[in-house]
Structures are given as C-alpha cells and as structure tokens.
Write a structure and sequence with these properties.
Blueprint (H helix, E strand, L loop, with lengths): L1 H5 L7 E2 H7 L6 H10 L10 E2 L11 H10 L12 H4 L9
Parallel strand pairs: 1-2
Helix pairs in contact: 2-3
Length: 96
C-alpha cells in the first residue's frame, strides 16, 4: 500500500479506498488508514491520501495537511479539497 502512496503525483490526491483498490485489496480502506497512521517512511506523501468525496479525513494534523496540499496548488477548505474530481488520481471518471 505504501508503494501506491509513493506514486501519487504532486498536486493530486487519492482516497483511502483507491489506495486499497490499487494495492489489490478493494474494500480495505480502513486498513489503509491504519497502515498510514503507523507507517514511518520518510518522504512519502501521506497528506495526498484523503477520504471519499474529497474530505480531508483522519490525518493527525489537519492544519498541516491543508497547508501541504495548498502548497502543491490544491484549493482546500476547512474540511475538503475543492474540485476533487479534477485533482483525484488516478482519474477514473466523475467523482463527487
């Protein structure tokens, strides 16, 4: 799952569910959250993994997550990424 996270491009986001699916474990979104929470691999863009629908999700420091995403050019409100369907990776059609 960490290999999938390492491939998320700058300025893009993906969901916990998409990470699980791309890692061959569809339906394991909660497991992805647990793995990312305890992982300690430097340089991985953990902040680019968000909840379904563009919500920021359970990141330990949402203010930091917002700042990191904004620094990559994403529009971020208090709780979600704007234009989620346009910035979601991998692109797989319309999203909410």
């Amino acid at each position: 799952m960490l290999a999938v996270v390492s491939r998320i491009p700058v300025g893009r986001v993906t969901t916990y569910g998409d990470v699980a699916r791309l890692a061959g474990r569809p339906g394991a979104a909660r497991a992805v959250g647990s793995i990312l929470r305890t992982a300690n691999r430097r340089g991985l863009p953990y902040h680019r993994v968000i909840a379904a629908g563009g919500h920021l999700g359970g990141y330990s420091d949402l203010q930091l997550k917002r700042a990191l995403l904004a620094a990559e050019g994403l529009e971020v409100t208090a709780r979600r990424v704007r234009r989620f369907g346009e910035v979601c990776w991998p692109s797989s059609g319309p999203r909410s």
